[in-house]
């Protein structure tokens, strides 16, 4: 069996071979303490001069940070170590001696770290965050599969907008072999016509929703998971220009049931993190009480109207039909001890596809799920307009191109059903679960308004 640091308990007392890197080093004359990592975790390697050959000790002494090494030694229990184990080193093979490592000597600013993201990913905190992100993705897949949802992949190149036209990223649909392209055959809606040599622009997907709506008529319950793109003008801690979203959609599910589906999913995801990542949460110094509350479910539901009243009581200036900005969401989300839903927003501030509330035609059957602890929106969802005429009227009101949405309108023509769904922003979820200050640490390579490298 191959040794893994995270399974050290299985190797207690045994001689193992660790293939990894030197994370840190400290010497005290006759002993060298190595912080070693192998991808699965961190362990201290102890090199005692009197117990290894002269060459091994010389090698141990010259190891630089991030040098790749193959280390042999005996794993033993050590109560004082954070992981409970350490390794008594017998042999060291240097795979590649690292040049002087730029990270770690002193405090670095965010810009420096982001410019070195390809290396920063190795740091303990960043390592812990990505492990948790992985658990979250797996938990979402597991839970939805258990609930009978089928994964349907939505396209990234799309001819139409899902979430408003102001944040679209146009891409010229202009391959290098354009000479072979028969322009006449390219289907072009109004939005696609351009002066781009007669070739269309397509848009990077803002959400797979509209496409997975089509798939519910084949499979009942479906979800997607993929990168989504929004040309966000604002430089906030909550917005990326490229982020990962999971959309879920189900036939014969109404607004109230939709809220329950979301609550169950988020409870499951957070329970999974508590089950698999206590070590990582400890590294991040994450207070787990708010997560334990989340795992219990029972999320409060308040209306948009009630949220406005609460904000006014907190001396926030807000109109009856306004959307909530980051500050308002932060204030509201400090008033609860677990995530909570805000439902029934004014129609005019929401997307064209949301179904009208039959009790108040000026509002829609939507909900946002806000994480507590000041984090704000993590999910946006709604019941969808399933009536052909009403949907067409909404498309026109929003000045969207009818021709581009013909296929979407078809879904209301051939066996339309009440249906609902939602989209969960992975980075928002990771940021809150890990209690990070900014979304940029939640994704391996963040893309923001002014940054798209490395
Ligand atoms: O609320 P949004 O805009 O909803 C939709 O896109 C729907 N089509 C989803 C659906 O019903 N299937 O976005 C969904 C979530 C937000 O709640 C937020 O978590 C995240 O996506 N999100 C962003 N995350 C990072 N950066 C951005 N710029 C984001 N914009 C939205
Ligand atoms: Mg939203």
TrEMBL record:
A single GO cellular-component term on record: cytoplasm
Pfam families: tRNA-synt_2, tRNA_anti-codon
Localisation per UniProt entry: Cytoplasm
GO biological process: asparaginyl-tRNA aminoacylation
Gene Ontology molecular function, alphabetical: asparagine-tRNA ligase activity; ATP binding; nucleic acid binding
Domain Aminoacyl-transfer RNA synthetases class-II family profile: 131-444
E.C. no: 6.1.1.22
Catalytic activity, reaction form: tRNA(Asn) + L-asparagine + ATP = L-asparaginyl-tRNA(Asn) + AMP + diphosphate + H(+)
Enzyme class: ligase
Domain of life where this protein originates: Bacteria
PROSITE patterns per UniProt: AA_TRNA_LIGASE_II
InterPro entries: Aa-tRNA-synt_II, aa-tRNA-synth_II, aa-tRNA-synth_II/BPL/LPL, Asn-tRNA-ligase, Asp/Asn-tRNA-synth_IIb, NA-bd_OB-fold, NA-bd_OB_tRNA
Keyword Repeat: no
UniProtKB keywords: Aminoacyl-tRNA synthetase, ATP-binding, Cytoplasm, Ligase, Nucleotide-binding, Protein biosynthesis
Assembly and interaction partners: Homodimer.
Family: Belongs to the class-II aminoacyl-tRNA synthetase family.
Protein name: Asparagine--tRNA ligase
Organism: Candidatus Roizmanbacteria bacterium CG_4_10_14_0_8_um_filter_33_9
